[in-house]
Specification:
It is globular and about 40 Å long. The chain is built from 8 helices and 10 strands. Helix 5 packs across helix 6. By secondary structure, it is of the alpha/beta class. It comes from Melia azedarach.
Length: about 250
């Protein structure tokens, strides 16, 4: 599939400064992540790409992405375009053929960073949420300011042997093996209402594990919230009926 798409791109006009709709169509990442032969922990922020002709962070060359809600009825907010354009796409990192979704440029843009947090706060401030659970590691960036703004506590969901106290663990499957997520015992109480936060949803494995871990101790997961969604990996399907809210989608 990669060879065929590459041939089609070579036969098209690549001298234009920005990608044509034809090139963009064939520069979409391949939905099957196993073709990338990546270790599981590297799947979250990567996309398979053809040669990096069309890989640029400018707003003109990246197709505008829309606001997506948990019920699938997207709505547009004037802040979304600035957030989307502030996310840099780096080609061939960490290996050739990979497009990396880099949020560090979003963090450098104070307006885009503030708008990102504000959009989440506006959605959750009146939903009686007492716990914001952030998934390691980028969930630790967005989770704490959201938690402070809505009056909730922040609970880190960490990789094995990172938390010093007694933990409860949840094992989950990845494309090439298994991983484990941990949370401190006593960090949450039965009956609390939680929001699960991460920067990006791809295959949905870590979000699903976080939900199971919280529900095992009697917490009600109100929603999952991510800045970016890579819908071709169908991560929403792994969440079952739990709602997901994202700001920008790479559709």
């Amino acid at each position: 599939m990669m060879h065929a798409a590459t041939s089609l791109l070579k036969s098209s006009n690549i001298s234009q400064p920005f990608p044509s709709p034809f090139q963009r169509r064939f520069c979409r990442w391949i939905a099957d992540p196993s073709s990338a032969h990546l270790p599981p922990k590297h799947l979250q922020n990567y996309r398979i790409s053809l040669p990096p002709l069309n890989c640029t962070a400018s707003a003109d060359s990246v197709q505008h992405r829309k606001m997506a809600s948990n019920d699938g009825q997207g709505f547009r907010d004037p802040r979304i375009a600035g957030i989307s354009s502030a996310i840099r796409v780096i080609p061939d990192f960490p290996k050739p053929g990979i497009l990396f979704q880099d949020i560090t440029t979003l963090l450098l843009d104070t307006k885009a960073f503030r708008d990102t947090v504000d959009l989440f706060v506006e959605r959750y401030k009146d939903k009686n949420i007492s716990v914001v659970a952030g998934i390691e590691a980028r969930g630790f960036i967005f989770g704490p300011p959201i938690a402070l703004a809505i009056g909730a506590k922040f609970v880190p969901m960490r990789k094995p042997k990172k938390l010093p106290g007694k933990v409860i663990s949840e094992e989950y499957s990845l494309e090439y093996g298994k991983d484990v997520m941990e949370m401190h015992v006593g960090a949450v109480q039965p009956g609390e209402r939680a929001l699960v936060v991460d920067d990006l949803i791809a295959t949905g494995g870590t979000l699903a594990a976080a939900i199971r871990l919280l529900e095992r101790v009697g917490v009600h997961v109100v929603e999952c919230a991510c800045v970016i969604e890579l819908p071709e990996l169908k991560g929403r399907e792994r969440l079952g009926e739990r709602p997901l809210f994202v700001l920008v989608s790479s559709d």
